[in-house]
Protein 1
Amino acid sequence: MIALERAKHPLKGDIFVPGDKSISHRSIMFGALAKGTTEVTGFLESADCLSTIDCFKKLGVEIEHSIRPTNGVPTITVHGGGLNNFTAPNSTLYTGNSGTTTRLMSGILSAQPFDSMITGDMSIEKRPMERIIKPLTQMGAEVTSIMGNGCAPLRFTGGRSLHGINYRSPVSSAQVKSCIMLAGLYAEGDTVVYEPALSRNHTEIMLSAFGADIHNEVARDGSAACILHPGMPLSGMKINVPGDISSAAYFMAAALIVPDSEILIRNVGINATRAGIITVLKQMGADITLLNVDESHEPKADILVRYSELHGNENHQFVIGGKDIPRMIDELPVVAVLAATADCDTIIKDAAELKIKESNRIDTVVDGLTKMGCDVEATDDGMIIHGGRPLRGADIDSHSDHRLAMSFAIASLAAEGTTRILGDECVGISYPSFFKDLQTLL
Ligand code: S3P
């Protein structure tokens, strides 16, 4: 449990956030699938990404942590053996709390010559895996939900030959898309995944840098297609992971919620498929400036955020929905906190995916905000936040959901009295030094 008080002063300062979680996972996975050495700097050493390293070690991949002698930078080195060089694990692969590890690894395990099992913690064992079992089965894989409930533990039967598919995903999900693409690397023929709106495209960007023939296209019907022609060799490479915009979001929100604050968040990944929070907050009147923009494959920038009063349109409304949702899905809890302080009603819609994250984030966010005195209602696919009421401190259960713990820590900065976050240690899933870093700005 951690107790937090309203901020006594404006927040000022510079901050670096840890490496991007999605890119960190993929750097290990694709490094393991490639031939040769992959050197990763800026890797996020959080529980989720360490689960990915553990799983690949169990598949016989050599992975080292070291400090570069030349500049003292922590580096992860993956000695990849190519697509067909894994060894059968001698126990069930354990993914902890990580949906990305569970779903992406499933694509790889489906195509191995050996049997394997994968599972994670109590939250993972409740999250839907049918969304990957269905397409993997269509590709020829044999994947069984051991409890018969469409969730992990999952068993993969070895020695299946896979074939490419054209798959129309009902949801925009990078985990589903990436899982299918990874199985597609092993398949006979091309694999195409269509999703309603483009989800984060780190898999496409990084796999193509490793040598794969994979790209995104807008399909005739306007959906987002991801197309893979398998067969190209993957070779190890150097990867420098930018700061995670999902972690930066908490400090953006901190600057926007505490009067007169100004925070510079350095070296943050601003890939367009992740940067919905910047677009949306600017539309609400946030003073956000991108500095030192580096337009590489994974663009990055320093983000300068100054306190701003957030507002809606002339009817005092602001709607967040449609194609913006996959571009900011993980940031919606902290955006909801900001909306509670904004001078408008904020309607979050098309976001039913929130229900199946580390917690049911529609329920858990609405509960927490209600406890803090906000007028908010849950809807089937989001929530309506009637902003502008003063927030008051409360006891907030994190539900072991890292993004919830951090979002309500930010709410506490604007709340009268003490806010206690129960189960705050779950921040270790994506941002182990979060409370320490927040403290440097207070
Ligand atoms: C992720 C994809 C998203 C996101 C998650 C990380 C990824 O999940 O919420 O935190 O790295 O591919 P979905 O694909 O389920 O939307």
Note: Residues 21-33 form the longest helix (13 residues).
Protein 2
Amino acid sequence: MLNEKHILIGITGGIAAYKTAELTRELVKKGASVKVIMTKNATEFITPLTLQTLSRHPVYMDMYSLSGDFSISHISLAQEADLVVIAPATANVIGKIAVGIADDLLTTSVMATRAPVLICPSMNTQMYENPIVQGNLEKLAAQGYLIVDPSHGELACGVEGPGRLPDVSEIVDVVETILTPKDLTGEHVLVTAGPTQEAFDPVRFITNHSSGKMGYAVAVMARRRGADVTLISGPTTLAAPRGVRCVSVKSAREMRDAVMEHLEKATVVIKAAAVADYRPASRSDSKIKKSEGTLNMSLERNPDIIAEIGKNKGQRVLIGFAMETDNLFENAAEKLTRKNMDLIIANDLNQEGAGFQTDTNVITMLDPNGGKETLPLMDKMDVADRILDRVKKIIEKRKR
Ligand code: PMT
């Protein structure tokens, strides 16, 4: 997703510098060309060789080194960057940038770049809370610098509070968000994800294998593309995505109520949740004791949420998923028409790497005109992006 993006990472002298090695690795893995500038103090915490190996480029430290590579200067590093990330950013470098001091390769590069600059402060809590540091951060934010708030926790110095460099995955998400074109700005995307749980006593329920990964990927990608996103999720172990309005539900009926509550302002609805079609007809208030012989349970139908939206969808774009083990395309096409969807995403439980729990999926998108687009095995984030490309096309067609 970061293919052909040039990212310049600046590392300053903080204990969290070791995490920047992982950050570099992740960004390279996602296809970015990453170059690293280290301040002299940063080299006390982590070696340039580590960053050189992970970035696959020389590490730049000195403005005046006679490296023989005349094309590399603070100006060329600054100019080729699509994004500059300073992680960890110490109080010292934050202060220097805030007042316009450019006395080393990193600060001169920041001064010379036209790319967005993302600052990831990381330091001792008292230093971070110092009004001078806070004032400098406010000043930088007001000038368009992007700041990732440090996370809370126990710091290397033993103090508990804000100051930790956030998890690498969070910084990568911020980087990807900055570098993603905002072509869904103005859209309100309502996504459902995960399984539902249908309880029949206080300790047991009927559910399915959905992990929520597919729906969460759609929510994250829609937010990266600039949409306002509401995610209604059944029980999962996934962390609530940053910048997304999250509503947790358990049963299909709770999911239905939450969807209806948030439906009005939604311009796009994407139903990736695996909603239980049936629930136990009765729920015991106490644990059902086991006894000899079989236990019979009668089930009753749950509301079909997407069908209800389909009956009164107005101008909304309505996308559903179909999970089948047999006659995938016939069944998916039937659901597409019957539930009045604009697109249905068919995923086949029998295919390796598709469907529940995996990080990948194999999908075919069917539209009401008989169009059929099959994608190869892909990461669920890429699948989500391709689904949103179709959403964008439907919206554009409606506007014409
Ligand atoms: O969560 P993961 O582990 O990443 O797995 C992803 C997934 C396989 C769950 C997902 O990609 C998927 O296929 N979700 C839909 C599964 C499903 O319930 O399919 P269905 O054919 O039963 O339902 C068709 C559509 O109607 C779905 O959009 C579903 O959300 C919706 N539905 C179904 C029943 C119901 N009572 N209400 C609904 O709104």
Note: The pocket of PMT is lined by residues 194, 210-214, 252, 271-275, 277, 302, 304-306, 320-323, 335, 347, 355-357 (CB under 6 Å).
